[in-house]
Specification:
With 305 residues, the protein is an alpha/beta fold. It is built from ten helices and twelve strands. The model has no long low-confidence stretch (mean pLDDT 88).
């Protein structure tokens, strides 16, 4: 998968089949659209293209309401998930107030057609785009009659899972419903980042403690508590403890349970969340933390995952 940050230096894309959207979470509804995108690209001997934006458009358009919007994926996590779908080209375009004023006609005519030479444009059911959301499938269908491209709308019946929206997934995650979140996503929720040995964990334990550094402040972290995890897609199990105090950012700790579990410290690691175990954690109660860790480890050892 090739990654681009503008439309002027992407080279020639053959018979581009294009869709747009934020695709936060790369969840099961997104995958239906991406599967269709890749299928159509192969059918015309072309290449699949996703145009997405950073930061999230709602943070720019509605800063008073959505300025603190948290996202399921960091940018790096989203890139890796999209690469697994077989996508050929990912455009991550800076979203600014100026860009938000781009009309649907300008976006389609000047960017999708003149710069990317779109062969087919795909939109999800009831998808709108462009300034004031004036662009939609009907507009594209009319334009395609005179501009030599095809357009397809994914029918509602084919994307029933799209009702599993990123908003719904964020709500499940904020409430600590990890298994529900994973079902919506069709993959494990994960936190990726540099991992360091931790020397100030608020509780004594025989297990070595690591801390994973959160790369982006927009990354949505589950609530305070403990979680059963696996590491780097290996069959190594661990315990993740999330703590926060007052207005501080959450701190994400990792304790290995499997004796073969080792971290490449000061390197990026991928932590996959399987199940919430406990909520009985307070930053300033070391003895309680020590006792709870022992109970949680016993429970995780009983899990099959």
């Amino acid at each position: 998968m090739k990654i681009h940050t503008d439309f002027d230096h992407c080279g020639e894309i053959k018979n581009a089949v294009i869709t747009t959207g934020t695709f936060d979470g790369v969840h099961i509804g997104h995958k239906i659209i991406l599967d269709r995108l890749n299928f159509l690209a192969k059918s015309v001997n072309g290449e699949s293209v996703l145009i997405t934006f950073h930061p999230h458009p709602r943070k720019i358009l509605f800063p008073d309401k959505c300025g603190d919007l948290k996202l399921i994926n960091s940018q790096e996590e989203k890139k890796q998930l999209l690469a697994k779908t077989g996508l050929d080209h990912l455009f991550i375009i800076p979203f600014t107030l100026e860009f938000s004023k781009t009309t649907s006609h300008t976006f389609v005519n000047d960017i999708l057609l003149k710069k990317l030479h779109a062969r087919i444009i795909i939109v999800g059911f009831n998808h709108h785009f462009g300034h004031n959301r004036e662009g939609d499938y009907s507009y594209l269908h009319k334009l395609s009659k005179t501009h030599n491209f095809d357009v397809e709308e994914i029918p509602m019946k084919d994307i029933e899972h799209e009702a599993v929206s990123s908003t719904r997934i964020r709500k499940a995650l904020q409430e600590g419903h990890i298994q529900r979140t994973n079902a919506y996503l069709d993959h494990y929720y994960n936190i990726q980042g540099e991992t360091i040995e931790c020397n100030d964990f608020p509780g004594n334990t025989d297990n070595k403690v690591y801390e994973i550094l959160i790369e982006e402040e927009e990354k949505l972290i589950p609530p305070v508590g403990s979680y059963a995890i696996s590491v780097n897609q290996e069959n190594h199990h661990g315990l993740s403890i999330i703590l926060s105090q007052h207005s501080e950012k959450p701190r994400v700790y990792i304790l290995g349970i499997d004796e073969n579990l080792t971290f490449d410290t000061n390197k990026r690691n991928n932590i996959f969340y399987h199940k919430k175990i406990s909520t009985n954690y307070q930053m300033n109660q070391a003895k309680q933390i020590e006792t709870q860790i022992l109970e949680d480890i016993n429970e995780i050892n009983e899990l099959i995952f």
